[in-house]
Structures are given as structure tokens and as C-alpha cells.
Amino acid sequence: MRVVLINPPPHEGKRFIREGRCMQSVASWAALWPPLTLAQLAVLARRDGHDVLLLDGNTQRQAGLKPLLDAVGAFRPDVAVLSTGFPSLEGDHAAALAIRDAYPGIPVVGLGQFFTLTGTEGFRETPEFDLALMGEPEKPFMNLLAWLQSGRQGDPPPGVMCRDADGHPRDAVPAEPLDRLDELPFPAVDLLQRDAYRLPHNGQPFMLVNVARGCSAPCIFCIAPAYHGRRLRRHSLEYVLAELEHFDREFGLKHFLFWEEVFAHDRTFAEALCEAMISRGTPWAWAATTRADRVDRALLTLMKRAGCFLLGLGIESGNQVILDNARKGETLDDLRRAVALCRETGIRSMGHFIFGLPGETRETAEETLRFALSLGLDYLQCYAAVPYPGTPLGKMAQEKGWIRATRWSQYDFGGPSIMDIGTITPEEVDAFRRRLFRRFYLSPGFLARQARELLANPRQLIQAAGFLRWI
Hints:
- This protein is α/β, with parallel strands linked by helices.
- Helices cover 39% and strands 17% of the residues.
- The protein is built from 16 helices and 17 strands.
- It has helices at residues 36-47, 66-75, 89-102, 113-124, 138-149, 224-228, 237-251, 267-279, 297-305, 320-325, 332-345, 362-374, 392-400, 426-441, 444-456, 460-470; strands at 2-7, 16-19, 22-25, 51-56, 79-83, 108-111, 131-133, 160-163, 169-170, 207-210, 212-213, 233-234, 255-259, 285-290, 308-316, 348-355, 379-384.
- The longest helix has 16 residues, at 426-441.
């Protein structure tokens, strides 16, 4: 079979990241991410003898859908698989519809968090898609290809949602998640335009590297468990090191983002990985995300020696009651300590904040703003709480009538607030986000640091300008 894997192109001038729990405008990260999931599916299809084309519309130079349609037409696929997300959904619809209209008979398949979280409801509202993959995509994708190759004999396989003869959605039988991640071959990075994916702080090309999947934390807003589950599964130390060496040797890549929910969830593994990288002379620079209560001075010192240059921390709020309502299981002291230790050990810190969680008031939001500015972070991101279907927050918001969205694309972690929780208005939530962004990124201290870095690496100027326009 001939399989085309598509990251849809910009819609109305906006490019989107669609990678697991991260579904946001590219501008909000100041960097374009490689579509790791599509590269992983590509290598699985090639392993089974299929011809594969991977199209990342974010990297196309010409605007509009024509370049995509021309490439699809030249390849003549038997199936088209499109990555989707909530904020990008209208553009994803447009791409799917354009392919169906231009090339009737090619099954158009959606994958990603949107279909996983909305199920038959979301599928009913997206008739442009013939089929959809549910949950962690590798097994459903391989099931799909085998089913299509058989001429669709029998019922759809696990993880594949379809429509009946009248066009009504039929729910999918769940597919079991992968137990042994090491069975996956390395992603097909050769199919990506690797030069397009560059870090915002130094302009160096980078790649996502999946180290582990799953998170047992009970945070009420997180969509990661719906995709990868709560049970921790990880690659072996040998696999991760071999993958890093493969990317370095074959493609010259030396900068990585370790893509998992909580680095050091398994501390023994994290320490062993750092020690192994140190023994190799720390040839790689890398970033990760973690919980504040998972790090201490010894671990951060080891991470720094192993090449860690940036650590993302889910801080969320500067009010302890809000953190407790969100089931974070962390204290304000945990958060202060983690940021301070990053600063002391020389690792840059990225704090993530959420305004509008249950219990939020103007007073608690003001506390969060002051708290964020007091921590000494190097970077921050702040969001409005989103009641995604399938999360405890989504269920709570539905029951209490808080949701104000009229379109799925408004479920955007980086977009305007869509919840009116009664103690703070959506407009006030958005105003606090804007205030924090501007006070942090337009502060004399941050601008001075940015100016020094721009002098050292002028290539960053375009990325910095784009990020400041977005702010």
C-alpha cells in the first residue's frame, strides 16, 4: 500500500503543533516542532513493506492547500492519515475535505487527541474524515493498514473508529497500549525537513525523543492519561542511548527534547541515563519536563553535567488552595525550591501556569502573577484552563454549566478562556494571562538577557520577533 502521513498546513496564517498533549499555535512556543508521531508511524509502515510519504505542512513555503494536494496527487496514496488537534481543527477539516474532493476514494483518516477525547461525538461532527484512530496511535495504525489491505474484511480492528452504511459513527473497540516500547524502530527522521525544526534560544536543529509514556499524577486538567494511560512505560536505557547516537551519527543532531510527561518519574532510570551520557563526554544538549517534587540538588547537578540546558516545570498557580483543587499534590515551597535549584545548578527553567482553575478569583490570580514574577524563572508559559472532554475538569465543567465554547477549536490551551466558573470571568482570566506575559517578557531583566543572546546568535532575531508579536 501507499500511505501518506500529513501534518496539515497553516490555516488562516496559523501553524499548529499537534503532538500528543501539546496542541498549540507554533507562535506560542516560538519554535516549530517535528511531527514525531507521524515519523514513528512512517517507520512502522515502511517496516511492513508499505510505501510512505510524510508531508509536514508547517514547513511548506507556499501558502494554501495546493502544495499539499499536488504532493498527494503525485504520490497516488491508498490512504491518507492526518494529524489533528483541537485548536487546529478547522484547518484540519479543510485539509481533509480538500483531499476527499480532489481524490475521491482515498480513505481519509484522523488521529490525535481530538478523536481520542471526543469519540463518536467529535467524529459525528467531522464528516470529512472516513475513519479515526483512537488513543495511542501505533497499534491502531498498524491494525488499520492490515484491515485496509484485506479489503476491509470483518469489523474494524481495535482502535479504529468508522461509520456505518448510513454514515453514523461506530465506536471503536479500544486497542491495548504497547507494553514493550523498545519494539518500536527509531522514527523515520529521514522523511522530515530537519533543518526546519530549531530551538528558539540558540537556533540549533533539534529532535523530540520519546523516553517514557504514561503518568500516574491525578491532575484534573491533564489530557495525557487519555492518550498514554496512567501506567508508566519507558524505553530501556540502551534504547534511548542508541537512538541519540543514531540521530547524532546519521543526521548530525545534537539537541533534543526528551518527550515524556515527567522526567525522573523513575529516578533510578533518570540517574542512569545521565551517568551514561556523562560517560560519553556529554555530546548532547537536552531539555525535559518534570514535577517540582521530583527534583533535588543532587539530581539537577547530575542533569546539568549530562547536558540538560532547560527544565519545564508545571507550576500552574501561586495559590495553594487552587493547587489542591487541581489535585497537583505539590506545595508552593516545592515550586520555589525547584526553580531556585535550577538557578543554582545552571539549568534554565520554564514555568507553566494555568489561570481559571476551579476556585480561581481575581485575588488568587493576582497571587499567581506575583508568585510567577518572584520565582526567578528564565521563561514562562501561561494558559487558560480548558475543560477537555475525558478529564475530571471537563466533567466538572459540563456538570456545572461552565463551558462557553461553541466550537471544538476554541478548546485551546493557548487561546482565550472558554470557562465561566462564577468566581472570575473568562475576560478576567485572559487579562491576567496578558498581564503576566507582558510583565515577564517585557521586563528590563528579560530584555537585557535576550539582547545579549541575540548578539551572540543573530539567527534568533526572527524567532524573537515572532514571539514578541504573539505576546
